[in-house]
Amino acid sequence: MNKQEKETFVLLQNQLNHERQCADALADALINGGMGRQFEALLMHETLRNGIQYPGIEVGQPRAKRAPRRGHPNQWFRMPPQGFYYEPKKPTEEETEE
User: Fold this and answer.
1) Residues 32, 38, 39, CA angle at the centre, nearest 5°?
2) CA distance 25 to 37
3) Do 39 and 25 meet the contact criterion of CB atoms below 8 Å apart?
4) Tens digit of pLDDT for each residue in 27-42?
5) Closest Cα to residue 25, out of 48, 39, 36, 41?
6) Which residue range(s) make up the domain with 17?
7) How many domains is the chain partitioned into structurally?
8) pTM over 0.70
């Protein structure tokens, strides 16, 4: 293992240990109860709710943006200026007199 792989491995181990500690805190809070324990469980939930984040590791490859396909309906669709749900324009007095 080279130096970079070793650092990545250590970071992964640290993150997994943190997740195990959080999971143990949640299990202990559910079993034993208590307000302090429940707040620890909520902290664990907030930590892991946004997905597991491994420091120093990029997941996936960035992709270049593609041009829209020529035959796709989005190419010729334009949003109406008033939006989808709008009242039809009422005729003015000048238009009704004619």
Assistant:
1) 145
2) 7
3) no
4) 777 777 777 777 777 7
5) 41
6) 1-55
7) 1
8) no
